């Protein structure tokens, strides 16, 4: 019997996003296969996590493509991006906690591609005058990632309604990123 690798990965993702410390035995059970079959697909937990990383990168890149980040106002593009990422947010929240994915020479270049595309969206918003220029595109990108992970965890734990996911993230992020003509807005001070 052939093992459906995509089914195994999605089963592992569903379990690990709820219980990040689940064992390989528990992952195998969730996928409806034996531990030996799981081990033939993934030599260990690290191999499984790396495969989940590849899935997460592919889903992020597909969400970015679907969000059309170069079209229309940048704020609207951010809203589209968050809405497109929402179905994948639990997996991304899990990956966000896997430090080994983001350290050292083995970091997947896919994350850098995603970072650059998201930062380019924020730069576009700054160039058009929509977004504040005192917050770097790199910081806005990291803030978006943190909000996506936090919202995914809050939804998973039942503290937030799933229907509020996109609204909560975009309103908080864009409310802070929006450029204001209000002279009372804090001005970035140069350090001495």
Show the helix and strand layout.
Blueprint: H1 5-18, H2 24-31, H3 35-41, H4 45-67, H5 74-85, H6 89-96, H7 109-127, H8 137-156, H9 165-177
Helix pairs in contact: 1-2, 1-4, 1-6, 2-3, 4-5, 4-7, 5-7, 5-9, 6-8, 7-8, 8-9
Pfam family, one: TetR_N
Domain HTH tetR-type: 2-60
Protein name: TetR/AcrR family transcriptional regulator
Offer a concise description of the structure.
With 192 residues, this protein is mainly alpha-helical. It is 65% helix and 0% strand.
The unreliable regions are none
> Average pLDDT, to the nearest integer?
87
- Rg (C-alpha, Å): 19 Å
Please give the count of helices. Answer: 9
Instruction: Report the portion of residues in β strands.
Output: under 5%
Given the helix and strand composition, which structural class is it? mainly alpha
Shape: elongated
Helical percentage? 55-70%
What is the number of beta strands? 0
Q: Give the ordered list of helices and strands.
A: HHHHHHHHH
Largest sheet: none
**Measured distance between first and last alpha carbons:** 68 Å
Question: What would the keywords be for this entry?
Answer:
single chain; 192 residues; mainly alpha; HTH_TetR
